């Protein structure tokens, strides 16, 4: 899938993907090209409140106000993903990625940033694939590539996001949403 068409889409782990970092995960793709792919895992809240790492953002992020593990890469860095107000240009401190999604400069004044966004989520680390790596995983049928919604980033019930995204697809994917995480329990 060409780069522009992947950015802003979701990579949704197929039930057979058992990698501990990505099993039953939903990843928002933020960059994709010949150089590789970068995204954030949307459904891995951490037991770390935002105020422990970025106190000015604690009362300004979408609930729950915890860090989310964006992936296994760069866990010592933080990335802010914003859902932008479609009626306004991105505020200072936010770079539009695609559609309603933008990246937040976490050194910017939160009050300025929030003037043009619906909500912000902060991720520790990110998911990354080297050149050709994601294409190989897609060929192995490890992921579904699905349309995203702004609400996917800001959902307060991240632990149910995989099932919710699968269910809204209808048909066979909705049926897969009911499969147990461990098929041996079926």
UniProtKB/TrEMBL annotation:
Q: Which Gene3D superfamilies match?
A: VC0467-like
SUPFAM superfamilies (UniProt xref) = VC0467-like (SSF143456)
Q: Where is the signal peptide?
A: none
The family database entries (InterPro entries) matched by this protein are listed as: AlgH-like
UniProt-listed Pfam families = DUF179
Per the record, the coiled-coil ranges are none
Family stated for the protein in its record? Belongs to the UPF0301 (AlgH) family.
Q: Which PANTHER family match?
A: UNCHARACTERIZED PROTEIN YQGE, UPF0301 PROTEIN YQGE
HAMAP family per record? UPF0301
Q: Can you name this protein?
A: UPF0301 protein Col01nite_03740
| Native species | Cellulomonas oligotrophica
């Amino acid at each position: 899938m060409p780069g522009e068409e992947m950015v802003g889409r979701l990579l949704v782990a197929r039930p057979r993907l058992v990698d501990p970092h990505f099993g039953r995960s939903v990843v928002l793709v933020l960059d994709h090209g010949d150089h590789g792919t970068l995204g954030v895992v949307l459904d891995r809240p951490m037991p770390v409140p935002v105020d422990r790492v970025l106190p000015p953002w604690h009362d300004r992020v979408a609930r729950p106000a915890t860090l989310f593990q964006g992936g296994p890469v760069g866990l010592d860095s933080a990335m802010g993903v914003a859902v932008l107000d479609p009626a306004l240009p991105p505020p200072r401190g936010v770079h539009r990625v695609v559609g309603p999604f933008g990246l937040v400069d976490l050194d910017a004044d939160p009050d300025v940033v929030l003037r043009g966004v619906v909500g912000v989520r902060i991720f520790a680390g990110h998911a990354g694939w080297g050149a050709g790596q994601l294409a190989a995983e897609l060929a192995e049928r490890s992921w579904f590539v699905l349309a995203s919604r702004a609400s996917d980033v800001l959902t307060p019930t991240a632990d149910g996001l995989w099932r919710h995204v699968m269910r809204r697809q209808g048909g066979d994917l909705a049926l897969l949403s009911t499969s147990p995480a461990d098929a041996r329990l079926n």
